[in-house]
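Notes, p. 3: input format for complexes.
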Amino acid sequence: MQQAKAAVLRQVNAPMTIETIDVGPVAAGDVLVRMRAASLCHTDLEAMEGAIAINLPAVLGHEAAGEVVETGAGVTDLAVGDRVVLSWNPHCGSCFYCERAQPILCRQFLAHGPKGFHFDGKPRLACDAVPMHQLMYLGGFAEYAIVPSQAAIRVPDAMPFDRAALIGCGVMTGVGAATRIASLRWGDVALVIGCGAVGLSAIQGCVLAGAERIIAVDPNPARRQLARAIGATHACDPAEAADLAKSLTDNRGADVIIEAAGRPETFRLSAEAVRPGGQIVWLGKVAVNEEVAFRWGSLMQEKRIVRSSYGGARPAQDFPMLARAYLEGRLKLDEMISARIRLEDVNEGFAALKRGETVRSVVMFP
Ligand SMILES: NC(=O)c1ccc[n+]([C@@H]2O[C@H](COP(=O)([O-])OP(=O)(O)OC[C@H]3O[C@@H](n4cnc5c(N)ncnc54)[C@H](O)[C@@H]3O)[C@@H](O)[C@H]2O)c1
Ligand SMILES: [Zn+2]
Ligand SMILES: [Zn+2]
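Output follows (366 residues plus zinc ion):
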């Protein structure tokens, strides 16, 4: 059993509290990870506000990196001292969806995620002997976490922990949307709506996939500037986006649109600005019961729309590849870290994310 300082969410719409929790014991197939960095993603904020459901009390944090300090029975592919990025998509490997290479729809994954426990239904965390839940099988806002071994992906030792953490959600989702879901082609005109960590990563995925023109769309001028710095060839306010896409494509519209803002108007914009036969990838989300209306004509003409979780991630392959891309200068991550903070400052970090002041704040563990 390991004691750990953790940020605990006890009720929605209330700050997380810093508490000491018990982590363990490590079961067969688990690994104990000493957390070194955990960044603040919009999805944690949605859990704090009750827009996505998870049993409470829970430890949030699902964009994290650390080092393996203990391995459970049967874990053969990880060793103590390995540097790992956490993946939030453990999957059984043998259900209907896993068999069809769609691990994000794994029955076990979907069934146990909202409960906040591992696939065996048993807690790994407790506070005063009361079981605690882990957001997305992880719980990165704690000094230690026990995760399924397949959720800990080894990356090179040269990869700095804070930048490694970003790979685990926002970067994977954005890059994957361009490379794995949209299957962008060399020469395409891409338009990315929303330039937070997910959208900025989508822009970089478009660069890696060979898009010729990449339009970054965000109402925030600072975000547009950042988008240009990391690879967008054009940037504009949402009001100008559809016209700009047409002006670059002989009036057709963008070949690929990646939506990463999560608003009704940005879903609508994606349908208006894509060309006939083009592809739309929605990454953002509104509350699950919220309705989003579309002009019917904007949906016609063979447009293909996919709403993707995790950008088609295959973490075991993709995380090391993304880490290498960073280390070799092909993926920019330094620019996405707005602040490095202490665990005690996590609530203020989320307030800053909500105000749009930070792309990513990263909790650094000593
Ligand atoms: N699909 C997934 O697996 C996945 C993973 C992580 C996050 N997300 C979702 O992706 C979205 C983005 O996440 P993030 O962490 O980058 O969030 P963020 O809040 O950091 O970024 C959102 C960006 O959208 C911009 N924006 C606001 N209104 C806009 C508009 N009308 N048009 C264009 N841009 C607008 C904001 O200025 C901001 O730069 C969220 O909805 C989040 O829930 C999805
Ligand atoms: Zn499965
Ligand atoms: Zn996330």
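Residues 170-310 form a domain with the Rossmann fold fold (CATH 3.40.50.720).
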